[in-house]
Design a protein that fits this description.
8 helices; single chain; alpha/beta; 244 residues; seven-stranded mixed β-sheet; 20% strand
């Protein structure tokens, strides 16, 4: 099944965009804790690796799509010293938590977080040197359209860095991964977030999202001149890098 057809609640109560917004509003208070817990803190390492890929590339103005509670936007601002980091997300609940974190760290002059649809970005063509997205593209209602929007708002020579969860290929790792993602994470997620479906949707969407060469192909078809995949941690996470 295509990832666009995997929805958080799967009950016909609304399109994917609406359901994703509702889900993240529901789990916003538990989101940061669950990110640390379900990755055993390795998500910080993955973000650091993604940010380092932009160090030698133009990065004065960065757009962080599906910014959530702002972890990647904040990391970009602290590590790369850009002029601006703009984060957009569907969920008001997630963005509000992100704004509080930005203010606490005194980064309001650099980081701006707001509400925005990744499929219809409220920015002019060529507005950014770099576009990033962490754990968000599998939530898009139209993945190719999302990449076309990233390409549109990127300046010539700009870079896109996508951080996304993926399925390990190793036969030795897969059984443990399946047990953890299909049973442990949903159980803990239901207890902590109080959302029955959110952390069952997680492994379903990971399994359905295009990965590796297939994801690279979609990025190239969206207009990027080059793209590559970098597997991390036995393949449970992948960074995709593309150039305009």
């Amino acid at each position: 099944m295509q990832v666009e057809n995997i929805t958080p609640y799967g009950d016909g109560s609304g399109d994917k965009t609406r359901q994703v917004r509702e889900m993240f509003d529901n789990i916003a208070p538990a989101y940061d804790f669950m990110n640390r817990a379900m990755t055993l803190g390795i998500d910080r390492v993955w973000r650091s690796r993604a940010v380092r890929l932009l160090r030698e590339e133009p990065h004065d103005d960065i757009l962080d799509i599906a910014t959530g509670t702002g972890d990647l936007a904040i990391k970009l601002a602290r590590d790369l010293d850009p002029i601006t980091v703009t984060g957009v997300d569907l969920s008001e609940g997630m963005v509000e938590i992100g704004r509080q974190k930005v203010e606490k760290m005194g980064l309001q002059e650099v980081v701006t977080l707001g509400i925005g649809d990744c499929l219809l970005l409220p920015f002019t063509d060529g507005a950014f040197d770099a576009v990033t997205c962490a754990y968000g593209v599998r939530n898009f209602a139209d993945l190719p359209a999302g990449y076309r929007e990233m390409h549109r708002v990127l300046r010539p020579g700009g870079t896109v860095v996508i951080l996304e969860l993926s399925t390990p290929r190793s036969k030795a790792v897969k059984p443990f991964y399946n047990l953890y993602t299909r049973h442990v994470i949903p159980t803990v997620g239901r207890m902590v977030s109080k959302d029955v479906r959110a952390y069952s949707y997680l492994p379903e969407s990971i399994a359905a999202v295009p990965q590796g060469d297939e994801m690279v192909r979609i990025m190239l078809e969206a207009g990027f001149s080059s793209a590559r995949a970098i597997p991390l941690t036995f393949g449970v996470c992948t960074i995709y890098v593309a150039k305009k």
